[in-house]
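Entry 14. Structure prediction run on the chain below.
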Amino acid sequence: MNHEIHEKLEKIIFKEESYSLEGTNLEVYKKMGSGFFDKIKL
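Output returned:
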């Protein structure tokens, strides 16, 4: 699907809450990083 068309069809139900949560996620990421500091043993 074309990206521009997709944006027109997309509707966020809880817009303010969604933006608030995304902002919180980014703040945690900036402070703590991605969280993958340990080596993975296979």
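The two ends are 38 Å apart (CA to CA).
Filed with the rest of this week's runs.
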